[in-house]
Design goal:
Blueprint (H helix, E strand, L loop, with lengths): L7 H5 L5 E2 L15 E6 H10 L1 H8 L3 E5 L12 H5 L5 E2 L8 H11 L11 H4 L19 E11 L14 E8 L6 E4 L11 E10 L6 E8 L7 E9 L6 E8 L5 E15 L1
Parallel strand pairs: 1-2, 2-3, 3-4
Antiparallel strand pairs: 5-8, 5-12, 6-7, 6-9, 9-10, 11-12
Bound molecules: 2-acetamido-2-deoxy-beta-D-glucopyranose.
The site of 2-acetamido-2-deoxy-beta-D-glucopyranose has 2 residues, from strand 8.
């Protein structure tokens, strides 16, 4: 007869999470903490936008798993930051699809050595939290910072689109991904025909209200007047992990692998606002 081979230790782990249908937020009737509900991205985003604080309180006790919408037949991705901002734990992306969302994902989890787990800040663990990422009030989450980034120069930026015969025309884009009002993006001018040692010497300032939830993405692209700009490389770091001073940022490829020598040279300054 066929015997199912199953390690008892593995089988025992099944008790850790029990999948249940989400029945709405009911703070007065806490469910056992091993209960986990699944939400499509659309449903989760609606809850995050309309009842962010309730979702945060729910996620301080229960696990939430978010999955990409069925209409994403091209395996594109949604922005995971909106889900993390309300404390969702298992924010599933299409890992096979590279792009900004996966860059942010990789950036978020490098904070804890890529073990796949980072601790939520206190205001997302609090069962009585008053935090709402859509409407920032005073609280432990609001620690206003001014981030000054001076994009100085680039080193050995590769030509990504080998089909074109011109030399790379690089530009750096600095992006903030966090709560809605902290989201921002600034870009340098384009340097013509120099991927070897472009020099920008441009300074940008960002106001960040909720630094604990912000990530900073440094992206370098090859400007093109006639077609879409080509992605060259990027690096994303959680804001609290940024080190101040003069830094070489080692760029990652579209697939998230390090380039052997492509870097940008920046100066980072963080002030209390
Ligand atoms: C770089 O910019 C600073 C102002 O931010 C300016 O004082 C300095 O002269 C610039 N350096 C060069 C080499 O252009």
């Amino acid at each position: 007869s066929d015997k199912l081979k199953l390690a008892k230790e593995l089988s025992d782990t099944v008790v850790y999470c029990r999948s249940v249908h989400f029945e709405g937020f009911d703070g007065s009737n806490p469910r056992p903490s091993n209960e986990m509900s699944s939400f499509s991205e659309g449903k989760a985003l609606k809850l995050a936008q309309e009842s962010g604080t309730s979702f945060i309180r729910h996620n301080s006790r229960q696990l939430s798993r978010i999955y990409p919408a069925g209409w994403r037949t091209d395996s594109s991705n949604y922005n995971p930051v909106d889900m993390w901002n309300v404390g969702c734990q298992i924010v599933a992306l299409n890992f096979q699809t590279k792009g900004t969302e996966m860059d942010i994902y990789q950036g978020r989890f490098q904070e804890n050595g890529f073990c796949g787990y980072v601790l939520k800040p206190d205001f997302l663990q609090d069962q009585n939290s008053k935090f709402n990422p859509r409407s920032i009030t005073e609280g432990s989450w609001r620690m206003r910072k001014k981030l000054q980034v001076k994009v100085i120069s680039g080193q050995q930026l590769p030509k990504v689109n080998k089909g074109k015969n011109s030399i790379v025309d690089p530009r750096v884009i600095v992006e903030i991904h966090g709560v809605h009002r902290d989201n921002d993006k600034k870009q340098t001018r384009v340097i013509d025909n120099n991927g070897f040692n472009p020099y920008w010497n441009e300074t940008f300032e960002f106001d960040i209200d909720v630094p604990r939830l912000a990530l900073v993405r440094f992206m370098v692209e090859d400007f093109d007047t006639s077609t879409k700009n080509d992605f060259i490389g990027q690096f994303t770091a959680p804001f609290p992990s940024l080190k101040q001073g003069y830094r070489h940022i080692h760029l990652l490829t579209k697939n998230g692998d390090p380039y052997p020598s492509a870097t940008i040279f920046v100066r980072i300054n963080i002030l209390d606002a």
